[in-house]
Amino acid sequence: MVSARYASTVALVRPAADGEFEILLTRRPQEMKFLGGFYVFPGGTVHESDHSPQVLKRCRGLTGKDARKILGSQHQEDIALGHWIAVFRELFEEVSVLLCTSKSGDDVNAGDEETKRRIESKRRAIINQELDFGSFLESEDLYCDLSRAVYFDHWITPEIYSMRFDTRFYLARLPFNQIPLRHSEEVTDSIWIKPAEALRRNNHYDFPLIPPTTTVLQNLARLGSWERLQGNYFSCIG
C-alpha cells in the first residue's frame, strides 16, 4: 500500500449577480501524471517549508493549538498550521491570488500596476525555485491571515491507487481587487462557475471531474445563495 501524502486544496468563491455564488475551478495540464486534463480546485502537497519557522512567523488569525484541534488532533501544531499555509502558497503559485494582509491588516493592493508586476515576477521566481514562499512574504512584508481559509472537508485517496493523497479541503472568499490568472505554469485554464452548473457540465459535456471534487460541489450547490454560504462558513470572519 502506498502512503498518502498530505495535501491541501481550496474552493475559492465569489458572489454572483443573481444572489448565488461561483467557485473557481482550474484545469490541470493534460501531460500531468496525476489527474491530467481534469478540473480541480487549486491546491497541492503540503511541504516541510510550509511550516518552517520563517513562514510561521508570517502567519496570524489561527493558533497552532486550534489548527491541530480542527484537524482532529492528528498533527503537531506546526504541521497542522502548514496545512493552512499550503493553501495560501498553492493559490498564489497557481492563480496569483494572495489571501494575505499587510502588517496593519490591510488587503494587498493588487490593483496597482507596479505592485502587480513585482508580485508576478516573484510568483514566477517561486515556481522556478529561485525564491521560497517565506522569503517572498518577508520581502513584501505580508502576513498570511489563516482565518481566511475555512476548513471544510477531508478526503483520502483509496488504497487501490498508486498515487495517494490525504487532502484537507478549505473555503476562501476571493479578496477584493484581485483577479485570478486565467492560465499559468500549472493551469491550462481557470473558470468561474456555479457549483450546480459544473455538475451539469460534467454529466453532459467535456468537463471532467472526479470525486471528491464532485462531492464538494454537490455540498456547495445545496447552499444555493451567497448569503447562506457566508452564514454557514464565513460568519465569524466578517
What does this structure look like?
There is one protein chain. The chain is of the alpha+beta class. The chain has a single domain, classed as Nucleoside Triphosphate Pyrophosphohydrolase, CATH 3.90.79.10. Helix content is 34%, strand content 22%. It contains eight helices and ten strands. The strands form two sheets. Strands 1, 2, 3, 4, 8, 9 and 10 form a seven-stranded mixed beta sheet that branches. Strands 5-7-6 form a three-stranded mixed beta sheet. A hairpin with a 5-residue loop joins β1 and β2. α2 (64-70) packs across α3 and α6 packs across α7. The protein is globular and about 45 Å long. The relative contact order is 0.21. The model has no long low-confidence stretch (mean pLDDT 93).
Q: Which secondary structure elements does this structure contain, and how are they paired or packed?
A:
Layout: E1 5-15, E2 21-27, E3 39-40, E4 43-45, H1 53-56, E5 59-60, H2 64-70, H3 77-95, E6 100-102, H4 113-127, H5 133-140, E7 142-145, E8 150-156, E9 165-173, E10 189-193, H6 195-204, H7 213-221, H8 226-233
Parallel strand pairs: 1-9, 5-7
Antiparallel strand pairs: 1-2, 1-4, 2-3, 2-10, 6-7, 8-9
Helix pairs in contact: 2-3, 6-7
